[in-house]
Specification:
There is one protein chain. By secondary structure, this protein is mainly alpha-helical. The chain contains eleven helices and no strands. α7 runs antiparallel to α8 and α9 packs across α10. The longest helix is centred in the first third of the chain and has 39 residues.
């Protein structure tokens, strides 16, 4: 008995009119096959969104946690809002707000509600704000200005909250430091006048705004270098910044 005799017989092609009609109808309507191929992809997006949102929210909270107990200067502080902004760039507004709330709840468990509020306002909200600005491709000057305003409000919120909890007016300590700075400037300029209270308070507010503006500019530089490598680029910097980075 040869090998050819042991092979199974191939099915004969049915040439009846009914089979031809059924074959033509299947070839003309390939849509059910496409639907079966697309539906699993839609089912994968939901758990992937949930996992990435939870991971980046915990990463943002842990950066704050590590910086609080093991401060490394301004290194980790730069990345406080970046993970939540990345969630906005990848999954949209709803996921970013979920990441901000999740990071706040995580820090309230690890560090208490007060320190959690100090992170949520302004850094968690700043992450959502920067993510929205970068998603809409707004220029740097607009996103930095909006972030500066939010950061300034965050400083005043922190002073108010800590003043209420400690029973002391922490604004006085800031005014004292600004007074010493302005008196030193007056001394170097040879001015014998005493700075007024209004000038001191205006100098304190200006110092807070300038500090937040510089901080937001550095955050944009760090996000430009990091998020480009992750495949979620932010808007391009101004020309003079690009020239400095090319060097």
């Amino acid at each position: 008995m040869s090998i050819l005799d042991s092979l199974p017989d191939e099915p004969e092609e049915d040439t009846s009119p009914e089979s031809q009609t059924e074959h033509n109808s299947k070839s003309d309507n390939p849509e059910p096959k496409q639907n079966t191929l697309l539906s699993p992809q839609l089912k994968v997006d939901a758990p992937l969104r949930m996992v990435e949102t939870a991971f980046l929210a915990s990463a943002s909270g842990l950066i704050w946690f590590i910086n609080f107990y093991f401060p490394l200067g301004p290194v980790l502080r730069i990345f406080f809002p970046v993970p939540i902004a990345l969630v906005y760039l990848r999954w949209g507004r709803r996921a970013a707000w979920m990441a901000a709330v999740t990071s706040g709840l995580l820090l309230s468990v690890l560090m208490g509600p007060v320190r959690s509020l100090l992170f949520v306002m302004p850094f968690a909200f700043m992450g959502v704000l920067l993510g929205a600005a970068w998603y809409r491709r707004t220029p740097w000057i607009i996103s930095i200005t909006l972030g500066t305003l939010l950061g300034t409000l965050g400083v005043f919120f922190r002073l108010w909250l800590l003043s209420v909890l400690s029973g002391e007016d922490l604004w006085i300590y800031l005014i004292t430091q600004v007074t010493e700075l302005i008196e030193w400037i007056f001394l170097k300029l040879g001015l014998l006048n005493t700075p007024s209270v209004f000038l001191i308070q205006l100098g304190a507010v200006a110092l807070i705004v300038i500090n937040n503006f510089i901080y937001l500019f550095v955050v944009h530089l760090a996000a430009l270098l990091l998020l480009d490598r992750l495949g979620n680029p932010i808007p391009r910097p101004p020309h003079w910044v690009q020239v400095l980075m090319d060097y």
